[in-house]
Specification:
With about 280 residues, this protein is α/β, with parallel strands linked by helices. The chain has seven helices and six strands; from the N terminus they run αααααβββαβαββ. The protein has a six-stranded mixed β-sheet. Helix 3 packs across helix 5. About 40% of the residues are buried.
Length: about 280
């Protein structure tokens, strides 16, 4: 049936991982199919499932081998005749990784996570959140809803919500636009100085070349604390090539959150990517 988790399949399935699921020669390890996007996704999986602390560089080196070995030993994933795990991701390992990721992506992230798993967001005075006409897609109470919006930002500089509708006001973000034809009264990021933002988010809006360039320009340098970028949308909006998001930095979290208004329509599931920018 193939892999199911968002990390391994979205926006497009990774053929190397799909092959690993069904073919022994396609297993992945140190020096064995050990460089590429498929390795990057495995590294993110190990970081999310086991807090492995790996650098997500797409290279299956010693540290990744250690993390695979630890992951397999903790779950008794042994080859026939073995009493300790090897350092290879094969058919059984990739299936268990995928199954655990699928459960994690459909579960409620902890409050210490980086995105809100519900329309409610963090506890706050929601009755003060904005309504129409500022909000074009409100929640059931007519106010801005917070599904997939940032929580626990870095917060040591400006927090910018590009094309926001007030859904992150309560956590200190300010709405801006990057292109005047879509501003609708929002101030322009062009008025901001370089490196002013510790947190940037875009929600349910395509990532144009102009927007990507502005994100890079206003992101705070790693020398003074860095910048975290959060992008969320459903599949109908998620048309930007993943390479554009990856070009901004290292993906530290990916989530798929069921849309409460369409729980049985995966195309409307909300996908969220959290990136520590370079």
């Amino acid at each position: 049936m193939g892999l199911k988790s968002m990390l391994f399949t979205s926006p497009d399935p990774d053929q190397q991982l799909e092959d690993c699921l069904v073919s022994d020669p396609a297993h992945i390890g140190e020096g064995i199919n050990g460089i590429g996007e498929h390795v990057r996704r495995i590294q993110i999986a190990l970081n999310e499932l086991d807090d492995a602390g790996l650098e997500v560089d797409g290279r299956f080196g010693e540290d990744t081998g250690d993390a695979v070995e630890d992951y397999k030993n903790a779950r008794n994933i042994f080859a026939p005749g073995e009493t300790t795990a090897n350092r290879i991701v094969g058919k059984g390992t990739i299936k268990i990784l995928d199954d655990e990721l699928n459960v994690l992506e459909k579960s409620t992230p902890l409050p210490t996570s980086f995105v809100s798993p519900t329309e409610a967001g963090l506890p706050h005075a929601h009755q003060q959140c904005p309504t129409s006409p500022r909000v074009t897609v409100p929640g059931p109470d007519g106010r801005a809803q917070h599904l997939g919006s940032p929580i626990n930002p870095i917060g040591n500089a400006m927090k910018i919500n590009i094309y926001g509708e007030g859904e992150t006001d309560y956590i200190g973000f300010a709405d801006f636009a990057t292109e005047p034809q879509f501003a609708n009264g929002r101030p322009m990021t062009s008025t901001l100085v370089n490196g002013c933002a510790s947190d940037i988010c875009v929600r349910s809006s395509p990532l144009s070349a102009v927007t990507l360039n502005e994100i890079r320009r206003i992101a705070q340098s790693a020398l003074v604390g860095g910048c975290r970028f959060t992008y969320g949308s459903n599949q109908e909006t998620f048309t930007t090539p993943r390479a554009d998001i990856l070009s901004l930095g290292t993906v530290i979290q990916q989530h798929r959150i069921a849309n409460p208004t369409a729980p049985n329509n995966p195309q409307k599931d909300f996908e969220v990517w959290v990136v520590d920018m370079f």
